[in-house]
Amino acid sequence: MFQSIKLIEKPNDFTSEKTIKKVADFFISKGKTIVGTDEKSDLIVVIAGDGTLLNTARLEINENTPILGINLGHLGFLIDVSIENMFEVLEEVLRGVFTEEKRTILKTNIGGQKYIAINDIVIHKHNSMRMIEFEVYVDGCFVSKQRADGLIIASPTGSTAYSLSSGGPIMHPDIEAISLVSICPHTLSHRPIVLPSSANIEIKMINSPDNNAQVIIDGQINIEIEINTKIKISKNDNFMRLVHPKSYNYFEVVRSKLKWGEKL
């Protein structure tokens, strides 16, 4: 099933470097081929945290390659295999015993430049305490004009990230949807809204203090924008394919990360 394997490590991390050698030796002992980071593969194994997986998924999205994550610290929302049981899980994966998810992700066009977002696309004020002003359109229909600190456009995967801390809904990863969540809106009647993944969203910048505003993708890519900039957002054609252990349970992950049912 998986013959060629690509291994991705956390940059400049000793534990990641040490672990990746053990994982490479394991796959080689099973007759698998380890390929370079710029080559195509049947499976990508990320040995790091959620941030490295997000970056890898963006870079590899056009290859449609499944990704398995081995976490070096606390288990994340996306990476759920620990170092302690990684070889047991890898054995099962090579036997075809695993769960695969296909998650909706986003694409955006900002002034002619195209980007992929796994979690979210955030339009935000920059270096100012003053709010920005923008218009929101969905499928060509005017939705609202807002004054706020910003707007989060989130995928189901991103619904448990910045969107959640801003009052947005948790969306199950099997749902094909996009949420719009305002950040500290001046008008309190602006509430989060969930759209079908077929929606074509356009945000037009109307005003920003000293022309300082940014689009931030997955918390990792920053793009400066000006007044009258149009930001177009829609579902990406390809999905992010995640490989999990057979015992994977989304609600168990959410309950663990959000401390549901625990005394705080």
Automatic annotation (TrEMBL):
Gene Ontology molecular function terms on file: ATP binding; NAD+ kinase activity
Keywords assigned by UniProt, alphabetized: ATP-binding, Kinase, NAD, NADP, Nucleotide-binding, Transferase
SUPFAM superfamilies named among the record's database cross-references: NAD kinase/diacylglycerol kinase-like
EC number annotated for this UniProt entry: 2.7.1.23
Gene3D superfamilies documented for this protein: Probable inorganic polyphosphate/atp-NAD kinase, domain 1 (3.40.50.10330), Probable inorganic polyphosphate/atp-NAD kinase, domain 2 (2.60.200.30)
Keyword Membrane: no
Enzyme class: transferase
GO process annotations (BP): NAD+ metabolic process; NADP+ biosynthetic process
The name this protein goes by in its record: NAD kinase
Naturally occurring in which organism (per UniProt): hydrothermal vent metagenome
